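seq/struct pair 1
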Amino acid sequence: MSVIVAKWTIDEYHRMIDAGILSDRKVELLKGEIVEMSPEGEPHAYSSGEAGDYLAKLLAERAKIRHAKPITLPNDSEPEPDIAIVQPLGREYRQHHPYPENIFWLIEYSNSSLEKDLETKSKIYAEADILEYWVVNLKKLHLIVFREVLDGEYATKLTLAGGAIQPLAFPNIFVAVEQIINS
């Protein structure tokens, strides 16, 4: 017996949200599937909050830091990354969530969701041509950096435990890895 999974479009997903069907569930849309999101533990909440504050100061007016807010991708996905560094488009975001062309890079903090963030989400973000994606492994306290989209996948994967990194979108900015990991 084969199992057939019902796939949803972004429009259908938005209609469910508007109708209140998903109001009591913490979910996101990944490649047409509505997926439960892991609860956010203390290390996750602390680290992502501190990193967001740090990036907001570091990038100032150059970018907007969005915490756990949806982004809309063309592959029937509307994930909610822990941090999205996006173009500061102001009121335009009243009309739509950031699209790939509005996104500088994304950051996920992972404890129990590490496999999903490293495998599923990295493929979704690469397919959508997000130039850079960072995952903080909260168990090992290191930063995994995905870059260089090639044929719908990231061709480069770096693991950092310290030092500084220059985001592709802002090559003149040095981001302290320790400030992102918050070890």
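seq/struct pair 2
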Amino acid sequence: MTAIIGLKTLYKSNYLQWLEETIKCLKHRQLADIDYENLIEELEDLAKNEKRRVKSLLEQIIRHLLLYQYWDLEKPRNANHWAAEIISFRNQINEDLSANLRNHLEDNFSIIYSNALDYVKAKTQLTNLPELCPYTLEQILDKSWLP
């Protein structure tokens, strides 16, 4: 019981040490000593952050695909930059994309597209942008595909 109180106090005063002690408890199967309340909170935050990160990367890819495909006025000057950004964001998202995170992207695809569309409309003032995403998730994630 005192180990748990110690870990709870440590969580508030020295997060990294709390993390190291929690890892030790898990490795040594000292489950009675674990600060479950804070551990669960941290794991939930970790999951939210990962979901937020892949959503942000997907939105960035879509933004750049829309710019690449539809902003004809700026395309001669910026096409290479947009293509390079697409590659960079694809590499980042594909590096850690699990089945669970992919499902999360599929479930939130229309919202992510809508956010990307809002950004591109504001940046470009274009009126010819499609209201529904013209790309599939597979195309967006495909390292060699461009519209």
